[in-house]
Amino acid sequence: MIRKRHLHQSAVIALLIVMTATATFGAEEAPKSSAPMKNLTTNLVYKAKPRRTLTVYYPDGWKPSDKRSALVIFRCNIPEQREHFRRLGMVIVKPQTAPVNSGQLPKQSLEKIASLPRPRHQVEDTKSSIRYLRANAATLGIDPEKIVATGTSGGGDLALQASINRSFEDATDDLSISPKPDALLLYCPAFDGIDIWFVKTETLLAKTKEEAPAFVGHLEEFARSTPEGYSVPLDHRVELIKQAETLGRREGIADEEIAKFQKVLELFNERDWQLLNPVADALEMSASRILTKEPLPPTLIMHGDRDHLLEYQQAFVAHARKTGQQFELKIFEGAGHSFMMQPYFEKPSTQVAEQFLRKHGYLPSSDAKPVDSSE
Question: Is there a contact between 132 and 54 (Cβ–Cβ < 8 Å)?
Fold first, then answer.
């Protein structure tokens, strides 16, 4: 059974007036006309509290009675690719997710940080938006069994989370509606964020012993260790660096060693990510840790061989294959992170994505063959 918020949205969509071609709709509006339309964009509310909207870009010739494939883009904006697949007939959806802004953390109090949206809320929103699309497919002119999730970097990981994450759910969602995409198109995904952004206790201890041994006995004043073996900072990184100078001078530690320990504290990275994303949450969002043997939907992973996340991408691919998962992989030579936004890689990466979508029936069929450059 669809919950009230989905029923209400469907009713709003169905009762709206006929709109003209090239129209742009406001929030909670969608077209009703049975005539084909052109250059149509609409904004819809997919969650009332906290309020979340999504933007829908309709292909030319679209009608509400259609059953088009949908491409849902999380946490990235690649207008060239978006327009390419819209022109090929897909309904393009860009959901808003929880506004996680780790770059502002050093300016916030720890109490304020505790109340801010967290990455787990983005996972909840990702699932909610796909459920909304399925619940309202008949009025959005999409096929509820042809929803493709995509994204770049963290957005790619979010798309995957919708398929494999079983921990985080919005309490107001109708859980009888599946949040799982029917296919995944992952651009340079940031798999296993806890390994990328979090500091292991053994690493912090080893670096301190090597660079600033006088501070080894004081580490508990700067960070605590979790049972899982990660170190969590007790304050903002910028504050910890100030604290190191105060403690060092009080203890008579040489300026050179103080400076080295301050450098060690930079392991907690400039965004103080651990303050916003608790270790317990991060572990429940670590793709390699939560991946099971349940088959993934048709999946294409694309990344470059010069990506700064290459180590983690390769580790996930190896782990996923070891568990028996099947997916296609394309590695672009000479490409770094977010390579598909660079002119040199824009066209070839779009072609590979199109080939994948055609092969799996999300675009008109062709003789496209699987792409796998990992062998």
Answer: yes
Amino acid at the residue 122? Q
pLDDT at 19: 36
Contact criterion met (CB below 8 Å) for 9 and 25: no
Judged by DSSP in three states, 132 sits in helix
Question: Mean pLDDT lowest for which of 7-16, 201-210, 362-371?
Answer: 7-16
State how far the Cα of 13 lies from the Cα of 24, in Å rounded to an integer.
Answer: 14
Q: Which domains does the chain have, with CATH numbers?
A: 4-192+290-359 (3.40.50.1820), 197-280 (no CATH)
DSSP track, 316-337: HHHHHHHTT---EEEEETT--T
**Helix axes 79-87 and 343-359, enclosed angle (nearest 10):** 40
**Cβ neighbours of residue 347 closer than 8 Å, sequence gap 6 or more:** none
Measured N-to-C along each axis, helices 119-135 and 154-164 cross at an angle, to the nearest 10 degrees, of 60
d(CA 201, CA 203): 5
Q: Mean pLDDT, the chain, as a whole number?
A: 88
**Torsion angle defined by CA atoms of residues 290, 195, 271 and 244, in that order, rounded to the nearest 10 degrees:** 130
**140's tokens:** 């959005």
SS3 state at 298: coil
Which DSSP helix (H) or strand (E) runs through 173? none
Parallel, antiparallel, or unpaired: how do β-strands 199-200 and 223-225 relate?
unpaired
Q: What proportions of the chain, in percent to the nearest 5, are helix, strand and coil? A: 45, 20, 40
What confidence score (pLDDT) does residue 29 get?
A: 56
Do residues 70 and 58 touch, judged by C-beta distance below 8 A?
no
Q: How high is the pLDDT of residue 35? A: 59
